[in-house]
Each structure stands twice: as structure tokens, then as C-alpha cells.
Design a protein that fits this description.
The complex is a heterodimer of chains A (504) and B (275). Chain A is an alpha+beta fold. Chain A has 12 helices and 12 strands. In chain A, 53% of the residues lie in helices and 17% in strands. The longest helix of chain B is centred in the middle third of the chain and has 16 residues. In chain B, strand 6 and strand 7 form a beta hairpin. The chains are: A alpha+beta (504), B alpha/beta (275).
Chain lengths: 504, 275
């Protein structure tokens, strides 16, 4: 099964979100719980205090009926689960439920043990010990508050003489409120928080998916389609480059790679073509030489003995054509004999100068003006200077042959240009000669293609092509009939190339 | 003992027949065969002024015959007919002491050119005993030889080409001289000059080194006979920028070595035929 990147990213984001949101929800709900509890406790203490105070006056007057009624009235309040006044010996003195009055409470019970844990009951209780939480038989959480009812001078001096003056605590008011409402509130707040978190995670995931799909998924999909197309052999496939991010750079670099791949494929195709042509040439030359020798010797022998006339002319034609065959075979052999370059650090400008030196006389005789524009400080390249010189001589001779009349100019330049795989030295040979017809432009580097009927084997530019590609370079031709021709040779500069001052 | 002008060794019947008839048409006596063993037998039973042998033969090759003749009858000029004129074949034939070689396909004039020079060399009794070429060129640089065929003098990144003993004094009357022109490429072992003579022959000169021609000898153009009279000085043919000097110099010999070979050859001449 294919797991897409976006799924992995989303899984990671969801996991992180769940973790972060859970922790934050837990922290916030704890804080909320604490706040609520404190509120409820304060409320319970206040309530307890209020009940005690509202009973005080009636108790001082020993109006027990009144106290009982007050207790009943208050006890009817919703949320107040328990309300009783217990004397210090554990007898329930007042309760909303009149039936409970007079009943006894176990002093060892959980409620009473707060004070009655020791042998002598405690007489003072700090606030936090007065409050307790417990779960009743029905499972409802409750908050109980015990408020001691202390002896006062007015109690012991009252007419009823119910309490002796030596007593500190007369009894307790035991109030319990239900926490059900609070618990409900907390539960609802918790589920709200969880819901909100889940919604946030869903929203983040959806948003992230959309962004990811747009910024990564689609470009990667296009790249994938492009690599498949290229793998299937379509080297003309190009990717759109719209942005400047890494993926767009990748697309641009992919395009560049495809261009170079196409160039390399073309060069390999040409090289293979030339190599098999070389083998074929050697084979043909071997096989054809003997019959050609027979034809040439007999025909030239006949010609030598022939009297003037039609026969002689015919024989001359045969000899001439046979010699042409011989030149073709020789050209093929020359071509097949191309040796691999012997490379050494080479100053291209020096090679240009030497090549110009070689053809100088010929150019002067033909009244051709040469203009140079050589870039100084060209790095040396790893090349065979003799073969490069041959390239330039061939191109120059080719240019010189392109002139028919008038203003004859050759422009020669060298330049350092950036390329995909490092810098390249670019040499241009530009003439303003007769130009090359468009339908012939694609053929000029093919062996035996020539427009110079009188001279040339049609191998000069094929040799040039072979040398340039042996050097890992490229050669292009651009031409307009009547305007002139430009040959552009580009040679790679090695990584370790050092700049040298070119000699004039 | 019967004597012939030419011993022709060629296994291709059409080529052999054509060459036979051409040479016979020139009034030359021709002994012919198709293989080396038979050629050796013929040389044992008759005298031959020159040997014209194909290089690629069934069984023993033309090189084997050349070695045999160079060893046993060093004064007999051997011309090797090469099937495909690769540089290697040409250079090897000179290294082994061939007078010249004749690349196929050739026409009547080219065949006659090399055969006449070989016969003239024989007329001078021993072509290896021709007036020795100087070891030093006109400007003091050493001459390097492609057999007895051509020389090159290398100095200051330039090489001057000229013809050696196999041409000098043997050409006859020169009618026309064609040399590769300015900017033209020349290849070691392939023709860079053609000399047409008034006896309807054509003599081709193989380049001692590869390179590009930068200058022709205008003095020679005006007076082609300098090739016969001053082949090592004013009769030079072309000035060339060598293309692969280092590796090609090996194929050329300095005259000190060559003289040693000549001495040995002359020594061989003293011996009687061992065929």
C-alpha cells in the first residue's frame, strides 16, 4: 500500500495536536475545578454561618419551636441536602425532618471524628477542617460543613439556664450541600473543551491538507509525471516553473537536466553513428580497393592507348569517376582513423592564435578581414591543443570558402559562459558569407555532406564535430542565406582550471 | 640465368593481369606469381631488377618477402602494394627497408611512376648506395627521414618537408608539381604532393608528419627540377605546423641510424644470393 507523504504529515500533526490540546485541556479543567470548589466551599461556609446566625436569637431566648421552624424553612431549600444541629453528646437537636430530632449520632462517625478523634473533643477548628467532601449512598458528591456553636456569656446567663458557663462548645451545626450541580457544570465544560479540541484538530488537518496539497502534493505529482515521461523517452517534456521555492527550483533543475540529457543523447547518437560509419568505412575500403584497382588500372591503361575521339572521352570519364571513388574511400579511411585526443592543460586563446597563424596567408590572399574579440584570463581547459587547432582551422577554412564577393569579414570570439554543469568556454566563428540553406543546416556535420562541389571531402565538419564531442563539448550552427553563418563551439572548463593570462 | 625487369607478386588476378599488361606495354619484362613461396623460388632461378609485391597475400605476406629481399639482396628495390593505405602499413614498409609503397587503387601513371624510379635506382646499381643525404638541414636542424622517401626538418614548432633519395635524381623531367596548399591538412603516410613527369608518370610523396600546411616553396614552383638537384635544401616542398609531433617522430629516423643500416645493406650486397 502506498502511504502518501501528506498522510504521514497529517498523522504527525494530529498526534502533536492531540497531545498539546489534551495537556492544555487537562490543565485548564483542573484550574476550573479548583476555582469552582473554592466557590462552592465559600458558599457553603457562608450558608452555614447564615443559618447559625439566623438561629442565634431564637436559641438565646430558648424558643426551640422557632429554631425548629427556621431549620425546616431553610432545609427546604434546593441543594441543601442536610441540616441538623447536634448537641455535644451526639443528640440531634434540630433537623428539618422532625422525626430525626432526638436521634443519636455516632461520635466515632466520619463526620464527628474531626473533633472527637481524641479523648477530649477539640474546641477550635480551622476553616479547612470544617469542610469535607463525601459521597452519599446514592453516589452523589456532597460537601459537608460543620460549624461549632460556641458558648457565649448570653447563653449561660439566659433565663433558661440550658448551658453551663464552663462549656466552650455547645454543639455543632452540620450542613451538607449537594455537589451534583457543580459536577454537572464541570462535566459539561470538559466535554465542551474536548469537542473544541477535536474541532481544532480537524480544522488544522483540513487546512494543512489543502496547503500541503497545493504547495507540495501538486508540484511533486507534476515532477513524478515528468520523470515518468522522461523515463519513457520523452526528452522534450518541460515542467512549468512558477515560484521560487525548493520544489520550483527542483522543477527548473529537472528541466535543465532534461535539456542536457537530450543533448547528451543526441551526441551519443551522433558518436555511435560516426563510430559505426568508421567501421563500415574500413570494411568497405578493404573490400572495394581490389575491384577499384582493376577498374582504374584497366581503364587508365585503355585511355593511355586510346586514339583521340569519343572512346577516349568515355574512358576519361571512367578514369575520372573511378578516381572520385578512390577519393571517397580515402576520405572514409581518414575519417575512420580519427585518434582519441591527447589532453593537456590548454589555453584556448593560444590555440585560436595558432589557428589564425596557419590560415593567415590564405585569408590575406582571399582578402578576408579577421576581427578578434578574445576574453582574457580564460581558464585553461583539459584538451588536445592540436585537435582544437584543427577544429578552428577547419571552421576558418570553411568560413573562407563561404565568400562569394564583396566585403569579406570573419569575426572570431572567445568567452566564458555559465552552463548547467560548470562554466564553459564559448568560441564563435562568424562570417558574413553566403550562408547555409535552412534545409541543409541539420546536415552540415554529417560525413560526406558538402556544398562545395569542386573541393572538399565533406568530412571537415564531421571531423570537427567528432573532436568537439570527444572533448565533451558541443557545436552549433546558425545561418541565414546571404547573411552569413555562425559556428558556436562550447567546451567544458574543468573544476581545477586555473586562470591564465592569454598571450596576444 | 634468365633476367627480368620486374617480379610481380599479386594474388588478385585482375590487378595482376592489368599491372602485367601495363608494364609489358612499357617494354618491360615481367615475371609474375601469386604467392611469396613461388616468388622466392623465382628469385632463386632468375634475376629480377625490382620486386613489386602486394602486401596482403595468402600464406606469407609481402612483409615476409620484403624481409627476405632486404636481407639477401638488399640492392633490389622492393615496392609494396598496400591493400588499404593505412598509415601503419606505409610506415612499416619503410621501417623494413622498402623502396616505396603503392596504395591501391592506382592508375597507370602512378604505377609507372614508382616502377620507373625503382628501375632507375637499380640502374644506379644500388639505390641504397646513392649519394648519402646530409644529416643536417639548411638551417642546422637535423633531418628526419621517412625511409628513403621523404624528410622533415623540425624547428620552432614548424616542420619543413622534402623528398629523399627515392626521388632525388630519379624523377626524370618534371612537367607539373602539385603540393597541398595553405591551410590544407596533411596526414603522415598519405600523399601531400604529386609530381607529374613528361614520361606520363605520376610520383606521389607521402607526408613524414601530420599537420597543416602554412607555406609552399615558391622557388620550387618556378623551378621544379630543384627536386632532382637540391632535394635537401632549396628543393623543399612545404612548411607545416605539425599536429601530433611527439608521437609521430618515432616513425622517422635520424640519419646516423640510417647510415648504420646503409652500411649493413652494403655489407649484404657483398654476399652472394642465398635464395
Amino acid at each position: 500500500m502506498k502511504i502518501r507523504i501528506i498522510h504521514r504529515v497529517l498523522a504527525a500533526v494530529v498526534a502533536v495536536s492531540v497531545l498539546v490540546l489534551s495537556v492544555s485541556a487537562w490543565l485548564s479543567s483542573r484550574a476550573q475545578d479548583a476555582a469552582l470548589s473554592e466557590r462552592v466551599e465559600r458558599h457553603a461556609l457562608l450558608l452555614s454561618e447564615t443559618i447559625k446566625n439566623s438561629m442565634r436569637h431564637a436559641m438565646l431566648l430558648d424558643e426551640r419551636e422557632m429554631v425548629q421552624r427556621t431549620v425546616e424553612a431553610i432545609g427546604a431549600q434546593r441543594g441543601l441536602d442536610q441540616l441538623r444541629v447536634v448537641s455535644k453528646d451526639g443528640t440531634v437537636v434540630f433537623s428539618p425532618d422532625a422525626t430525626l430530632v432526638g436521634s443519636h449520632v455516632d461520635l466515632r462517625s466520619e463526620t464527628c471524628s474531626v473533633c472527637h478523634a481524641g479523648r477530649d473533643p477539640a474546641v477550635e477548628l480551622p476553616n479547612e477542617r470544617r469542610i469535607r467532601q463525601f459521597v452519599d449512598a446514592t453516589g452523589t458528591r456532597r460537601l459537608g460543613v460543620i460549624t461549632p456553636i460556641e458558648n457565649e456569656p448570653s447563653c449561660s446567663q439566659a433565663a433558661c439556664h440550658a448551658h453551663a458557663p464552663g462549656q466552650r462548645v455547645l454543639g455543632v451545626l452540620d450542613v451538607a450541600v449537594s455537589l451534583a450541580d457543580v459536577d454537572r457544570e464541570v462535566a459539561s465544560s470538559r466535554s465542551f473543551t474536548i469537542g473544541l479540541s477535536l474541532a481544532a484538530i480537524a480544522a488544522i488537518s483540513a487546512l494543512l491538507w489543502a496547503i500541503f496539497h497545493r504547495l507540495v502534493g501538486r508540484p511533486v505529482g507534476r515532477l513524478l509525471a515528468a520523470t515518468r515521461a522522461v523515463a519513457a523517452g520523452d526528452l522534450s517534456y518541460r515542467l512549468p516553473v512558477r515560484r521560487t521555492d525548493e520544489l520550483s527550483q527542483l522543477a527548473a533543475s529537472f528541466n535543465e537536466m532534461t535539456v542536457h540529457l537530450a543533448e547528451a543523447r543526441h551526441q551519443v547518437y551522433q558518436s555511435n553513428k560516426l563510430a559505426s560509419l568508421g567501421r563500415l568505412a574500413a570494411g568497405i575500403a578493404h573490400e572495394i580497393n581490389n575491384p577499384l584497382t582493376g577498374v582504374l588500372t584497366y581503364s587508365s591503361f585503355l585511355l593511355k592507348r586510346a586514339a583521340d575521339g569519343e572512346t577516349r572521352q568515355d574512358l576519361e570519364t571512367i578514369v575520372h569517376e573511378t578516381k572520385r571513388c578512390r577519393e571517397i574511400v580515402r576520405g572514409l579511411l581518414d575519417f575512420a582513423r580519427q585518434v582519441p585526443p591527447k589532453k593537456s592543460p590548454t589555453d584556448v586563446n593560444q590555440v585560436i592564435a595558432r589557428a589564425l597563424d596557419i590560415v593567415d596567408n590564405q585569408l590575406k590572399v582571399q582578402n578576408i578581414q579577421v576581427t578578434r574579440s578574445l576574453r582574457e584570463d580564460l581558464p585553461r581547459i583539459h584538451a588536445d591543443p592540436n585537435q582544437l587547432q584543427q577544429v578552428l582551422v577547419n571552421l576558418l577554412v570553411n568560413a573562407a570558402d563561404a565568400f562569394v564577393d564583396g566585403n569579406r569579414q570573419i569575426f572570431l570570439s572567445s568567452e566564458l559562459v555559465p552552463g548547467a554543469s560548470g562554466q564553459r568556454i564559448e568560441v564563435k566563428v562568424i562570417d558574413n558569407g553566403c550562408g547555409i540553406a535552412e534545409q541543409n543546416l541539420g546536415k552540415v556535420f554529417e560525413p560526406f555532406f558538402t556544398t562545395k562541389d569542386r573541393k572538399g571531402t565533406g568530412l571537415g565538419l564531421a571531423v570537427v564535430w567528432g573532436i568537439v564531442s570527444e572533448h565533451g563539448g558541443t557545436i552549433e550552427v546558425d545561418s541565414k542565406v546571404g547573411r552569413g553563418t555562425t559556428f558556436t563551439v562550447r567546451l567544458p572548463v574543468d573544476g581545477g582550471g586555473t586562470a591564465v593570462r592569454s598571450e596576444p | 640465368m634468365k633476367s627480368y625487369d620486374v617480379l610481380l607478386v599479386e594474388d588478385d588476378r585482375a590487378v595482376q593481369e592489368a599491372a602485367f599488361r601495363i608494364l609489358r606495354g612499357e617494354g618491360l619484362s615481367v615475371d609474375r606469381t601469386e604467392e611469396v613461396g613461388d616468388a622466392v623460388a623465382k628469385m632463386r632461378n632468375a634475376e629480377h631488377r625490382i620486386v613489386l609485391s602486394d602486401l596482403m597475400l595468402p600464406g606469407f605476406s609481402g612483409f615476409d618477402l620484403l624481409d627476405r629481399v632486404a636481407n639477401d639482396r638488399p640492392h633490389v628495390p622492393v615496392v609494396l602494394i598496400t591493400g588499404y593505405a593505412t598509415i601503419e602499413n606505409a610506415l612499416h614498409s619503410f621501417e623494413r627497408g622498402a623502396f616505396d609503397f603503392l596504395p591501391k587503387p592506382f592508375d597507370v601513371a602512378e604505377l609507372l611512376g614508382v616502377v620507373r624510379r625503382a628501375l632507375r635506382a637499380d640502374e644506379l646499381h644500388s639505390w641504397t648506395a646513392l649519394a648519402p643525404a646530409p644529416a643536417i638541414g639548411p638551417r642546422g636542424e637535423p633531418l628526419r627521414f621517412l625511409g628513403q622517401h621523404a624528410w622533415a626538418a623540425v624547428a620552432g614548432g614548424r616542420a619543413v618537408f622534402g623528398v629523399a633519395e627515392a626521388f632525388a635524381g630519379l624523377l626524370g623531367e618534371i612537367r607539373e608539381l602539385r603540393v597541398h596548399g595553405l591551410g590544407e591538412m596533411v596526414t603522415q603516410g598519405l600523399a601531400f604532393a604529386e609530381i607529374a613527369t613528361t614520361d606520363d608518370a605520376i610520383h606521389r610523396v607521402w607526408a613524414p608528419l601530420s599537420g597543416t600546411v602554412v607555406e609552399n616553396n615558391s622557388e620550387l614552383r618556378a623551378n621544379p627540377d630543384l627536386l632532382n638537384s637540391a632535394p635537401f635544401s632549396s628543393g623543399w616542398l612545404a612548411r607545416v605546423v605539425p599536429a601530433a609531433l611527439e608521437e609521430q617522430l618515432d616513425a622517422l629516423t635520424l640519419r646516423a641510424e640510417s647510415r648504420a643500416r646503409t652500411t649493413r645493406s652494403n655489407g649484404g650486397k657483398e654476399r652472394r644470393w642465398s635464395f
